[in-house]
Amino acid sequence: MVKTLAAPSKYFQGADILKDLHQYVGFIGEKFIVLSDDIVIEIVRDKIRQGFQDTQASWEYIRFGGESTQAEAQRIVDIAKRDKHDGIIGIGGGKVTDTAKLVADMCGLPVVIIPTAAATDAPCSAMSVIYDEDGTFVVSKRMKKNPDVVLVDTQVIAEAPLRTFIAGVGDAFACYYEARACRSAGSMNYIGGLGTQAAYTIATLCNQALRENAVEAKKAVEGKKSTEALEKTVEAIIYMGGVGFENNGCAIAHGVYNGMTAVIKPFHAMHGEAVAVGTLIQLAAEKIDRAEYDDILGFFREVGLPVCLEDLGVEKVTDQLIMEIAQAGCTVSPNAHKMPFKVTPQVLYDAIQVVQERSR
Ligand SMILES: [Zn+2]
């Protein structure tokens, strides 16, 4: 099978770099759509103004409709065509940036992704999650290419809610373990080939950077000030986690997350929080050495990540609920079957029981 690697064309990261925005996106053209929402635009408006000051470029703020739907993307495509824009800049959380990716894919314009929190590893990927009008998941769609620019202002990230940051650590932490599983199973990545040595090294480095910096970085977010540890952690979450998962593939950690969202209603946990518990479930299914497991469990506790289903807001954890999650984990997505051994509902059920037991 062919080995393959895909990544955003350009990646910029630093404190307050939004103030120099044009310097990083000016190569695209002179007329931009800024897709965001009223809360986020208030936070970044002054920086964007400054970023376009004394340049020929102009930007038009378009208020995001609130849901990443095909119709919402079409609405923005129509505006982009009517007003002859050169590029789309999506600023905010996952739904805004996913819509920006979809708009760009539909009308063939370059896209700039500016995440305002490090809550997931999605920004660098070519994936866009589409929902219907009432917020029900429809499909996770691959764009023709990865974003042209991903720009991360780490001061904006430092000022985002702490919970989003911790969830981001949880999402990215899964990357290495899922990469390791896919590699030993010879499973395909999201590009449609096998992971390269570079991709696996990125996943490995992601894990190392999180272990070395995430606890210190948490203090930076608490103090709302970007630091070196925060910079390293943000790069691990957004760049290494993003390029890492897309180019290596996902496994049980995300498969069981998919199962949880199908079974636990209402689902209040953030993506990365549930993926963190999913990672522990994967490690239990892999029957890794107990000392290694406890070491990771200790790291999760230090960061403030959830370590069992109760931590994800499930009030009453029953054997039946665990079996339902295990069954959904095997059917809702193909992720759980990327492992180097056969994964059945019983395998996941037993692993979840181990994780529950060890969290006490
Ligand atoms: Zn994820």
Beta-strand percentage? 5-15%
Corresponding CATH superfamily of the largest domain: Dehydroquinate synthase-like - alpha domain
Number of helices: 13
Task: Give the radius of gyration.
Answer: 20 Å
Spatial strand arrangement across the major sheet: 1-8-5-4-2-3
Q: Which residue ranges are poorly predicted, with pLDDT under 50 across at least 5 consecutive positions?
A: none
What's the order of the H and E elements?
Answer: EHEHEHEHEEEEHHHHHHHHH
Largest sheet: 6 strands, parallel
User: Quaternary status of these chains?
Assistant: single chain
Domain module tally: 2
Percentage of residues in helical conformation: 40-55%
Q: SS-based structural class?
A: alpha/beta
